[in-house]
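Researcher: Next entry: Rhamnulokinase (Companilactobacillus zhachilii).
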Amino acid sequence: MTNVLAMDFGASSGRAIVGCFENGKINLVETHRFANDPIYFEDKLSWDIDQLFSQIKVGLKNSLAKYEITSLGVDTWGVDFGLIDEYGDLIGMPMHYRGVKTEKILTRISDFISLQDLYDSTGNQIMKINTLFQLLSIREYYPDQYFKTRKILMISDLFNYMLTGRMASERSIASTTQLTNPYSKDWSKKIIENFNLNAQMLPPIVNEGTQLGSIRKSLNFGDIKVINVCQHDTASAVLSIPAQKPFLFISCGTWSLVGTELDHPILNKKALEYNLTNESGFDKTTEFLKNCTGLWIVQELKRNYQADGMAWSYEQITKMVEETTNKTCLIDTDDDLFNEPGDMRQRIVQYSKATQQAIPEHPGEFFKCAYESLAQKYAETIDEIEDATGESYQEIHVVGGGSKSDYFCQLIANVTKRNVLAGPAEATAMGNVLIQLISLGEISDVSEARRIVSNSVTIKKFAPLKIKLVE
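Model: Predicted structure:
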């Protein structure tokens, strides 16, 4: 048996998961779970990187108490990063993508490059949270920090640096920055020059599967290899999808990534018009997708009610929604109104009034609004992807936390009018584990990896039923 540890960080929580590989199957065992709550550091919404790194150490300790661990891989969300000074120390705390003010920067992008040229040069969806815009914002509003910076490390790269003392940027996480070329998948010289950035601040890009080094002896965890997995959580999740033919996927967590896996980027006018992105996947494949708000609004509603003394589980919320027969409004889940933390009930009411729709009153109606609106967003995005690629897809693989909800999977099938294949729920951790095993020589390639997933997890199928949503 070979045991490897996946440290899987989402934007709201994290897990330490041991992947036990034996007899052609992988068994995932969660050894630690923790919240990922942002903090305010120097009046800026930030990631509590020291606290999160302490959770990696707890995850290692708990895992080693039960298993002999050969290697470790870290995956995280994209776009956010830490700044490293000339002494190798972190400058402040990494800023949270929801807290960086990039609006003014976006209005001046044309001073550097046209949006068409920016898209052609990077293939990335134009989003105000992108690393490029965050970096320009820091240069403008916090020049003291920017000009002290010697290296920029994405969050997963930062954790690897803290574990090993070595700096590198894994290709899939680098591809979320709007700083890489969509064909070579290396740093884009054109973007670096156009925006007057210092190329020396960007660490070398390495492929997934690279054995970066071993955990520093001073951490006292023994000889454990640190492997660059597909460090963007979506890229790891896509690897775990047990499909043998072209497929659509929805990786559903705080964010939802809706897309398909291709062997080349798509940079046509429709892709730009629909604001679709090209990111790097395993073995330099392209994940052609759109970043959409995921279960964020549902999560915030849950927090809102909890603050009012109503602490419901997701199972209770689902039951409440299923029992809600009243029609409710549909919102644009990607509207800036819903971007930042706060009372989502007030914002949904505000949106409903502005769009002259029925106003939710009861908890079930608010949650129903969030779920149905998200499913509608998926349907719209899938239509855009099919139009841009010229392909037609009959099935959707739903992975991640959202795949655990039968209600939500059936709703997606109904609204998109396509079959939904749900699972694996721990897709990112599974993909993380698979890449470590490939790097260690335990698995030969992607095809074998996906067959192993089929043998290791149960995939549920949901066929579309006729329903009627709000007109």
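Model: Note for the record: The first helix runs from residue 49 to 64.
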